[in-house]
Amino acid sequence: MLPTAVSNDPLAGVAEFRDQFIRAYRFMLHARLLDERLASLYRSGKIFGGVFLGRGQEALSAGLGVCLRQGDVFAPLIRDAAGRLAFGEHMIDSIRTYLGSPLGPMRSRDGNVHRGRPKEGLLPMISHLGAMISVVNGMLMARRMQKRLGTSVGAACLGEGGTSTGAFHEALNQAGVERLPLVMVIANNQYAYSTPTNRQFACDNLVERAAGYGFDGHTVDGTDLGECLETLQKAVDNARSGRGPQMIVAPLLRLCGHGEHDDSSYIDPRLKQSELGRDCLEIAEQRLVAEGWLSGEEIGRSRSELLAAIDETISTVQRESAPNASAESWQALSTVSLRDMSSGTEMA
Amino acid sequence: MFTPLPQVPFVMPQLGESIAEAVVVRFLAKPGDNVLAGQDVLEVETSKATMNVAAPASGKVVEWFAREQESYAVGAKLGVLEVSAAEAARLGIGDSFEPAEHESMRGSVGSMRGDDTNKAVSPTVRGLPVPANATGASYMSPRLKARMAELGIHAADLAGVAGSGAGGRVTIQDFEQFLANLEQHRLTGASSMRVAVADAMRRSWTRPIATVGMPVVLEPLLDHRKVQSPKPGPALYALRALAIALSENSAPAGRLVGNRIVHPKSIDIGFAVEVEDGVLVPVLRGVDQRSLGELTARYTELVELARQRRLPTDATGGSIATVTNFGTFGLTFATPIPLPEQTLVLGLGAGRKAPHWDEAKKQFVPVMEANLTLSFDHRVLDGGGAGRLLARVAELMQKPSGL
Amino acid sequence: MSITYLDAIREAQDRALKDDPRVFIYGQDVGAFGGAFKATKNLAAKYPGRVIDAPISEDAMVGAAIGAAIEGMRPIIEMQFADFSTVGFNQMVNHAATLYWRTGVPCPITIRLPSGGTSGGGPFHSQSLETIYAHFPGIVVMTPATVEDAYGMLLSAVAIDDPVIFCEHKYLYYHLKASSLPTESLPIGKARIARQGRDLTVVTYSAMVHECLAAAEVARDEGYEVEIVDLRTIKPLDTDTVVASVARTGRLLCVGEAWPWGGVSAEVIARVTAEAFDLLDAPPQRLNAKDTPVPYHPNLWAAHRPTAQSVAQSMLRLLRL
Fold first, then answer.
1. Domain total in chain A
2. Which of residues C152, C178, C204 is at a domain's end?
3. B touches which chains (3+ CB pairs under 8 A)?
4. Average pLDDT, integer, range C261-282
5. Angstrom distance (rounded) from CA B247 to CA B250
6. Are B373 and B336 in contact (CB under 8 A)?
7. Catalytic pick from C95, C125, C210, C304?
8. ∠ CA(C195), CA(C197), CA(C202), 5° rounding?
9. Chains B & C: contacts with CB separation below 8 Å
10. Known catalytic residue at C169
11. What span, in angstroms and rounded, lies between the C-alpha atoms of B214 and B371?
């Protein structure tokens, strides 16, 4: 199972793939450990809203993240901690946003997965995830108008549930019409909250939709990091080289609840026992050891180093002061002169 | 008999959203031509497109009013078509056919001058335009109230103003006009005493006040007074009699507050003393507990202090009734107004000789008598209760030695 | 030379495209066809690649505008009708309106809504939706009533760093004409006294300004002088100018073509009663469209919304109160 090598030297291709695999694996591990710590903060009452984990989806997520590069656009879905880290988001942004720190990118105004740095190409999602795709389109269209699109691509991620929205249809059609370098990654994790796929769509495979929008379609086993890397790299390369929008559909299984408030008792046990229910992190580790790319000892060391860094960052954030409501501007417009000062919220 | 055939106008159609006018490019049918319903009869150009206008019915083109290359508003009559009676019947039109769109398509910007009053649009505000209490002479708008408060003017001051608002209410314009008119008179400042009395009377007058009266024979009182030293004034006799009567039954002096009667704690009674530009009411405390003799010196002292406007605070306020001796002005009858916080005011008129029938002598004899009045808050007391109280006071005054 | 309200909108866009390379126009039929109302006529040829036809996808149109704004562009989105903007509602109110507040990244997009009723428009080509957009924080809502404002305010809308909903009135497109384009305009957020008066303040905006001006002439015949305040922007709302006018007249009538429930007229009345109760010499009144969808037949349509005639009746009733 070798990658579609960019280099002519097969051995160089192998080395490149190995390095990419190891990088992606480390982001998977980092994300898994960070998620677990966030879950425990949630259970200890330190997090105000929900916590949404990526357990079982790290291979796809990290795989995409390492295929993207600085200057690309990334609109993650709610389970993309691994992809975010791989794209360059520092974990302190995540922790600060979950804990509501005013020093985070969302300055206590938005929380948990609703974070990003638009000017750095990382879009802060609104809850209506389908809505993010056309925003990625618009960024790519703008760059093209500004003649600075170059080989940059935009990646948008969605679960299979998000594909049922009108916004998804409008945006994919738009990307097809404009022939944008959009990489649409669909993590089919079998449940949209509790709704199974047979209540979500009627086609055999969501990738069938690709043709209808003028996209190249790819299907990949979302539990296998190697396959994810191979397919995503190909799709991203296609988009970069002007071959139009790409759709990747990755079947996998969410190995946790919708959020940490959800015990996911509705998940069919047969799915858990199936190939879909395999833990992508374990599979990646098995391959690392089998290929001799990392030893069990090295993996263990990575784990403890990452945990220490996570704990230190959490501790830093927990020492940061909480937001002060009286210091808030309470103004939603950037134009100071247009702020409506008489809105009946308080006595004059 | 010749019946003219029905005529149907060619009208400039609405050829698109927001289109106001279009230019006639050329006619595709000329007068005298027979056209079918739906047949193109002229070509027009809007700012959006060039299109054809079709005949509204089958018939003969009579005349074009419009001219080529000129612009006509939507709804304008461009020409006229003569149709058969059958065609007219099929279209449901008569001789008086007027396109329905005329009325509204004319638009309304700048064109509505109340010429279609029978087609008035009823506004969304239905029923009474404003709350019922927002009309009528007693309604004062927030602005009027604010302006009056600013100037220290009360509703009673506006009694003479004829309002021009709904139901005769005084509008702010009426009020300002009233103020302007005042400037044409000589204006002097009212003393603070006058303003204070006015305020008290205004507050009192918010209640229904009634008065009962009866004569009382003064001979026993005058005889008793002659042998006293110092001599109590007649009003003090009345005051003491009222105190005893109220100590027997204090209910008539109660105040109505909401749905409860507030009874007096102590029989404290005031009496009116005329001072410069007003009236003061010093108060004697616990009058039911003190004899006439004991009260006389204090009464005289308080009259003097009142005239000097030096009343001590313990002699003002908190009384349950007032006695006023309007007889000192030579008046025989009056209807005084109780103070705002009181239910009762007892009045004493001027004494005069009146003929009384002496049954023993079978003749009229002159007797000194005066009118005794009781004005009261009719919410608390009725005529019967007031009359019984007044009769008891009169009775007590007949036995001054008991006072 | 005569310039219509629609010309002014086209000229403003022409100038915005000419002066600022960041500006582009995106909407259905806006390209070579020039737009359903010809508001972008000839612009695609004049500015190649910058006046772009969109699929019938209001959500994606606004979404793309947000993305382009993040990348430093200043898009103008043309909704074919204000009524269709509801399909893009989510992107407008949940995305564009929240972006600056959430991230500190401004969202300078202008969304043009051909608004209001025209004869025969019916329920889905006639609506006045300014109120629902004004309800959301983070949005500026403009409602120009004159040719001059259509021009000046659209240029301002493009220049402003926040999302602007530009409600241009379809009835005014051709019915309103001026002799020339303005060289200067009132600041955005400032209301205009469209007519000075002494006896009654009428607060209104967009096409209703003209109905109210006509109605004021009826009131004048009865001896009343009505002051008319053209709000120009409904958000921000220039409460100061409204209150100053009510201070002069003591009476307030609000007129809007939109529906009454929780609308601009309700907001104006709420503010005046809260902030200037003591200035009112009569209960404030309002006149809006009837609380039904906009009817199709011209006779019903003319009765559905306020007209000079019904405004005049409301004025006189309030003046005689």
1. 1
2. C178
3. C
4. 95
5. 6
6. yes
7. C125
8. 70
9. 157
10. no
11. 6
Q: Does residue B122 lie in a domain region?
A: no
Using a CB–CB cutoff of 8 Å, tell me whether C298 touches chain B: yes
Inter-chain residue contact B129 with C309, CB threshold 8 Å: no
Complex-level ipTM beyond the 0.85 threshold: yes
| Residues spanned by the domain of B176 | 135-187
Position of tokens 């303040």? C201
B142/C114 touch (CB, cutoff 8 Å), yes or no: no
Domains in chain C, number: 2
**Whether C165 contacts C131, CB under 8 Å:** no
Low-confidence ranges of chain B (pLDDT < 70): 1-3, 17, 93-135
pLDDT digits 0-9 by tens, C189-206: 999 999 999 999 999 999
Strands (E) in B97-238, as ranges, are: 209-217
Q: Mind listing the pLDDT tens digit for each residue in A161-204?
A: 999 999 999 999 999 999 999 999 999 999 999 999 999 999 99
d(CA A244, CA A239): 5
Residue type, A92: I
Does some domain include residue C70? yes
Per-residue CA distances from A93 to A34, A105, A109, A113 (Å): 12, 6, 13, 10
Q: For residues C127 and C122, give the distance between their C-alpha atoms in angstroms, rounded to a whole number.
A: 9
Domain at B313, CATH number: 3.30.559.10
Does C229 lie in the same domain as C92? no
Long-range CB contacts (< 8 A, 24+ apart) of B144-147? B144/B170, B144/B171, B144/B172, B144/B175, B144/C281, B145/C278, B146/C278, B146/C279, B147/B172, B147/B175, B147/B176
Q: What predicted TM-score, i.e. pTM, was given to this entire model?
A: 0.83
Contacts of C237 in chain A (CB under 8 A): 340, 342
Closest-CA distance of chain C to residue B207, Å = 28
Copy the structure tokens of residue C261: 């429930």
Q: What percent of chain C has pLDDT over 70?
A: 100
| CATH (domain of A306) | 3.40.50.970
Domains in chain B: how many in total? 3
Under 8 Å CB pairs connecting chains A and C tally to: 156
Give the integer Cα–Cα distance in Å for C320 and C219: 11
Rounded (10°) CA dihedral C267, C273, C276, C278: 160
User: Is residue C305 situated within a structural domain?
Assistant: yes
Q: Is the peptide bond before C236 cis (omega within 30 degrees of 0)?
A: yes
Rounded to whole angstroms, the Cα distance separating B306 from B328 reads 16
Length of chain A: 348
For chain A of 348 residues, list the mean pLDDT of each consecutive stretch of 10.
54 90 98 96 88 96 98 97 98 97 96 96 96 98 98 98 97 98 98 95 96 98 98 98 98 93 91 96 97 96 97 96 92 91 54
